[in-house]
Design a protein that fits this description.
Layout lengths: L2 H20 L4 H10 L4 H11 L1 H10 L8 H23 L3 H33 L6 H17 L4 H12 L4 H26 L4 H20 L6 H23 L1
């Protein structure tokens, strides 16, 4: 660990936390920065999963008011989210380094595409839903798939869960977001415990990223939201596409 590595992670944490507060996609900043400072891809993924977990918890606590009246629904989602998170973490723990390095460009590309189509998906879901909740099974299947993905590769987890939860409930965006934050908190708890015990992680990097993402999230909530979301989203998508191409070339 040197000053340059710490500075890079500090900046990435501030930017990632700020982006998460505005448009999401913060892990598309923090994850590649971990690799840029010398952390191997698989280790960087586990490290990033632990580093963002406290921010997930803070978001869940901050949105607890919007969980009022949804306590039973949230409780029923706990087993679904926990089982899915355990399965995703086990999958990552049993993925060879060489295999992960091969698939990571496509994971980054998938997260980038989700960033690009996120607003369209949300509009389509709202239109198709017509303000009515679908069958409860839709909610649980969607949350299971989202938490499975999120515990394996964190980027764009919030976007996935927002879309699938909006399909399964008939609530305002704020209340959907509260359920999303509750589920991401559960993912963060599981991945922190499992990766902290069984995975190789860069604890020094976690020590830098955790406070940086917290500060970035606060700044994002206070200042960055004055910036239009669309230009930010476009910038993240362009960055993600370039990053996917670079990682793909490196893996060949």
């Amino acid at each position: 660990m040197n000053l340059l590595q710490v500075s890079a992670l500090l900046i990435a944490g501030l930017l990632g936390g700020g982006l998460n507060a505005v448009a999401g996609g913060g892990s598309l900043i923090t994850y590649p920065t971990l690799m840029a400072v010398g952390v191997p891809p698989l280790l960087a993924n586990a490290t990033n999963g632990i580093a963002v977990a406290p921010a997930y918890t803070a978001a869940a606590v901050g949105s607890r008011e919007n969980l009022r009246g949804q306590k039973r629904r949230a409780l029923t989602l706990i087993p679904t989210a926990l089982v899915a998170s355990v399965c995703g973490a086990l999958l990552l723990l049993n993925t060879p380094h060489s295999v992960f390095e091969t698939i990571v460009p496509f994971l980054v590309l998938a997260a980038t595409v989700l960033m690009a189509i996120g607003p369209w998906v949300n509009r389509r879901v709202t239109k198709l839903n017509g303000g009515r909740a679908l069958h409860p099974a839709v909610l649980h299947i969607g949350v299971f798939a989202g938490c499975l993905y999120g515990s394996y590769f964190n980027a764009a987890l919030g976007l996935i869960l927002m879309a699938v939860i909006a399909m399964g409930v008939s609530e305002t965006l704020g209340r959907v977001g509260a359920l999303k934050n509750f589920c991401t908190m559960l993912v963060g708890v599981v991945t922190s415990v499992m990766y902290g015990i069984w995975a190789d992680v860069a604890w020094w990097a976690i020590g830098v990223l955790v406070p940086a993402t917290f500060i970035g999230g606060y700044i994002g909530a206070r200042i960055f939201q004055r910036i239009p979301e669309r230009p930010l989203r476009i910038a993240i998508v362009v960055y993600g596409l370039v990053l996917s191409a670079v990682l793909l070339v490196r893996s060949l």
